[in-house]
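Annex B, item 7. Sequence and C-alpha cells for protein A, then protein B.
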Amino acid sequence: MAKILGIGIATLDIINEVEGYPVEDSEQRALAQRQRTGGNVTNTLTVLRQFDHDCALAALLTPDADGRQIQEKLAQRGIDLSSAQILGFGHAPTSYITLNRQNGSRTIVHYRDLPEFDLNAFLKIDLAPFDWLHFEGRHCMDTAAMLAMARRAAGTKLLSLEVEKERPYLDQLFSFPDVVFFSRAFAEQRGFNDPEAFLNAAHQWAPQAVLVLGWGATGAYLKESLNDSVQLVPAQPIRGVVDSIGAGDTLIAGVIHARANQANADWRAAVTFGVRLAERKIQQFGFDGLAVDPNANNQPLCHLDDLGPEDAMGVQPVDGIPSVIVVRDHRAIRAYRNVCPHNGSALSKGVRGYLADKSTGPSDGMSLRCRLHNAYFEPLTGACTGGPCPGTHLTPVAIRQVGEMIYLDDLDENSRPTGK
C-alpha cells in the first residue's frame, strides 16, 4: 500500500439532521446530531485509511477542546499527525452542517479564525518516504511554492490537486500536479455548464496533468492528455441520497487508491472505482465501512455517536426485539446478547431501557438491568451484581470498531446472536 501525505485543512463537523430544510426565522428540532472530522483532504485520507494506505496529514491543529477532539478522532483512524503543526492558540475550524433527510442535501456554515498551513510548516516535512502527495487548492501563493518544491523533490512520486472553488492566484497551481480533481461548482464558477468544454479549456491551463471532473448524479468526466477526448464515467442508479457530505472527497480517494494500489491500471478504471465508491458513500451516513465488500451482509450495528459517554442501546432486531446490546462506558465498547441468564428473557424490548438508575442500582456506577426481574450486570464484564442470578454473566458478542462504526466481528452463522 502507498504512503500518502495530504496537505489541507482539518475541521470539526457538527451535523444536524433535519426532516426538511428550515425556513428563515424558524425553529426546528434536529432528528439527530453527529460530530466527525471534516475538511476536504482530511475526508480523503479518512477513506484511504480504510484501504490500509499509510496516511499523514499536514494541517494546522489547535489545543482547544474541539482541536483535541479532531486530533483524537484522527489518531483513532490511524492518520499520522507528525507532519501537522499544532498551534498554541486559536479555535479549531468548525463546520455547522444542516443535513436534509428528504434528499440528502447539506448546507454548511463554516467558521475559522486560524491562519493557513504555510510554506514554513511544509519545509519541515521530510517528503522522502511518501509515494503520493495530495494538495487542497487553498492559500494559493504558499501552495504554489509547496507544489514547486514537491515537484523538484518528487522523482517518481505522484502529485495531485483538488480544486473545489475559485480562490485568488489559483492558476499558479496548475502547472505542477500530475492529476487535478475539479468540482462541478468550480467549473460553473468559471462559466462552464458543459463538462467537456470545461476540461478542454482546463487542459490549456494544466497540459501535463490528468484531469478529473465530478459532475454529481451524472458521474465523472476524465481527460487524460491534451489530444485525448473527454470520457464520461456514468453514475449508476442508487436507492436514494442519504448523506452527500464529502462525496467529492470520496471520489478522489477512490481514484488515488485505485492508481496507488495498481500503478499500471488505466485512469478510466481508477475513475470508475472512484465513482462507484462515491455512490456507496452518499447512500450512508459518514465515511466508515466504505472498504467493506458491498455485497457482504455486513451492516454496522450502530455509530459511535449513537451512544452517550455512559450508554447502552439495543440493535440487530429479531422479530422486532433487539438481539444485541451495545454498551459504551466512556472509551470502552462492549456488546452482549439481549438475553438475561436468569430465565432467558430480553433485558429490554426496545432500543433503550437497558440502564439502571444510579440511585437505585447496586453500585454508584453504570449498571445494566433486566426489566423483568431486576437482575443487575456490570457493563464491562457482564457479571451479575445483584438480583436473582448471582454468579452468572451476560453472553458477550464479538464486535469490532471501524472508525466510528461498530460492527459484528467476523462470526460464522452458527455463532451470530439470535433473539429469544
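Protein B:
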Amino acid sequence: MEKVKMKFGNTAMYVSVKEENLIGVIEANKVPEGKTEDQIIKEALENPIDSARLRELVHEGEKVCVVIPDVTRAWQRTGIYLNKVVEELNEGGIPDKDIVFISALGSHRKQTRAEHEKLLGEKLASRFQVMDHDCYDKDNLVFLGETTYGNPIYINKIAMECDHIVITGGIVYHLLAGYAGGKKSILPGIAGAETIMTNHSLSLNDNLGESIKAGVCPGGIEDNPVHKDMVEAASFVKPTFMFNVVMGPDGQIAGAVAGNYLTAHEEGVKMLRAIDGVAIKEKADLAIASAGGYPKDINLYQSTKTLINAREAINEGGYIIAVMQCSEGLGGGKEIQDIILNYDNILDREKFVRDNFSIGKFIAYCMCETAYKYNVILVSDIEQELVKNANITVVKTIEDALNIVHKEKGENIKTYLMPHAANTFPLLTK
C-alpha cells in the first residue's frame, strides 16, 4: 500500500491507497543537477535565442524600461536574475539613471516599498526605485491600435517612451493564457484596464450557457483566443529582449531563456513541460490532491489551480479530494465571494461573469464549474456553509473524504495522488 504525504497549511496529512487501485503519483519530473542558479542565468543571457546579446542591442544615451513581475510572483527569484540583467545593460553603456523599472501589476493592487525591495533584491534596492503600473490611470496610457479580436490596446506610456523594453518573468502553466511569461508582461502586465478585461473576456464562448472556450486552458495556445490576442498586443510593443525563468520543484531556478520574446518563450515552455508537465496514459475516477501547503492553500481562491490541475487527471463525473487548509476562508474580493456564496447554479454564475467581466470572477467561476462537472470534496478548515451553494463538500480528514467516495463508488476506484497539484499538470498521452 502506497503512503504519501499531503501538505496541509503548515502541517501535513498522509494518505494510503491500495496498490491495485493506484495508477500513479503525479509529481514533477526530476531536474538535472550540476548547474547553479547563477550559471543558468548567465548561460541564458550569454546565449540568447534568435537575438543578439542584450548588451549589444542597447546603446549609450538610450533609455531602457525593464518590466518586472509583481510581488505575487516573487517566487520567481527576481532579486537574483535582475542583477544579471542590469549588468548586461550597464555593459552595453546604459547607466543606472537611464534604467526604469516598471512592475507589471496588470489589474493587481499597488505595492509597498518593502515589496519593491523584495522584487529588486538587496543589491539593486539601494540603486533603483520601482514604478507600479496602474491600469486605471488613463493619463499614463497610450493607444497603440486594435487587435484582430477587436481589443483596443492601451499600454503604459512611460514604458513606450523608452528606447527599449526588456520583459522579465517566469513561465508556468496559466488558466487563461496557456502559459505565463513572455507576452503576459505586456498584456495584462502593463496594459490598460479596458485592454485587460476585453482580452480576458475572450475566454468565454459567444452564447450564454456555452461556458469557457475549449482552447482556453492551462497549456492551451493553438485554439486559445486569449493567448493569441496577447501575442498581437505584444506585437504593437515589440519588446527588445526577454528573460524568463522556469522553476524546479524545490523552488529554485531550474532553467532560463533569453532573447526573442516569442521564440525564446517557446523554448522555455519546453523546459516547463519537461519539469511540471507529467505524462499520464489514462485518466482515473479519483484524484487526491494537495495544493502543496501554505501559502498555496491560504484560501480557496488561491487554491483554485489545484482543482484545475487535478481535474486533468480524472474522468468527468469523477472525484477530487482536495487537501487544502484555507485558513483565511474564501479569499478574494466581494465579487469573487458573491459568485461562490450567492448563486446555486452554473448558468446564473456564468451570467454574473459575463456582466462586467473580471479575472477574479472568472477564476472563481472556473472553480465552481469544476465542482459542477466533478465531485469535489475539500479536506479543509473552511466552513461548509461557505461552499454549499458551489456543490462542494467539506470534511476534516482524508479518511472522511474516502469514506464518502467508497460509499458512493465502492472501494476499488482507480486513483491518482497529487502531492503538489498546484504545480504539476497532468498531460494525457495517446
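Comment on protein B: The chain has 15 helices and 20 strands.
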